[in-house]
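Minutes, methods subgroup
Present: GH (chair), OT, SY

1. OT presented the first of two proteins processed in the latest run. Sequence and structure tokens recorded below as shown on screen.
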Amino acid sequence: MNRATSARNTTPASGGIAHHQAKAGTTGRSQARRSAPGPGRSSTYQGVAITPAGDGFTTSIDRDSIFDDVAQARRFIRSWKKNPEGSGGAEDARELFQQFHGKASTSSRLYDLANATPADLADLGRLIELVVWLDDETPYELKAPKPGAEEIRVGCVAERKGNGQVYGTQIYFVGGDQRLPLDKLGRAEGMPRDHVMIGPADRIAYFTSKDFHYFKPSIYEHQFGEESGDQPYLGYDARNKRIYLIGGRYRVERPGIID
């Protein structure tokens, strides 16, 4: 069950879709640089219109997302061109965000991540804590980055049921410093390896604001396997320094993360 507790010395999480741009391999090709248009001016990039919107810019392929500058808008267009079906994923992610938080998504965030991460994720909030079992008696608490450092965001893939209702499936951790001390965790034996199994994920805490608590910034906690008894495992991508979840029966719906 998700429960809200008072949040101290924290700031509200901003709404939006956690959208990343996959890393592109180097090709050795050179491209002529184009100068960016001046502030407040419309332009076209790869056949897509970029127009001023408030304090930022929007695009003709996704008018609901506001980008800080033209460079961000262009990166989004390049990502969308590589994966055009992702535009449908963005709509599902946007709908899941509104269902989960009780308010509409107002922005997109661009991240530079490994190619295996889906292009569009619904943002659930800022990671506060992730507890994993190293063995039957030893829990390890993965804490959020220190204040002032880049946040680790909790996002999830949005899918649709047969009745058309949107819900969340796979959880991803986006941004921030996700490095793990493998020596301290007793997981350094046999290194180097690209992927390391850390252990069963016990619970997760994340910080956000939701309508049923009157949008008061709060910390929500979920116990994995609370109903199903099936906990996901925490994996670690040692090459890219990223954590990820494997398995489990959790899903993301209106009340929060449930399983």
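2. SY then presented the second protein from the same run.
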Amino acid sequence: MNLRSIDPDALLLLQRESLSDLPGDLDASDGMLLDQAFAYPLNQAVMQHADVADLAAAYAVGILKYRPFVVGNEHAAFLAMGLFLYLNNWQLNASSEEAARVIWQASAADLGEDELANWVRSKL
């Protein structure tokens, strides 16, 4: 499967634009953490037979695991998941409330990566 990956600058732009009403610095707090967060799904793609839902979940989990932003990591995780799907001609069909609940569950480790991927798969 030939899938497009996310350009970190595109996510940074989306993050800044969508949270522009918040005070403070919305850029990544640590460029190395952002690099690790973006390397995570690429490693998953190489190490396992991953489909688009697995990789979308891996983008979200990478952000949630490495927490590269001072604020808005959950928001960035959802943006990364949606952007990855969009770049690969898929769309998540879930309400914003449901998606927020699922991302918060993943952030709190109440929902594992495989469960997140299964949820994504069910909403494609």
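Chair's summary of item 2: Residues 105 and 111 are 5 Å apart (CA to CA).
Next meeting: continue with the remaining queue.
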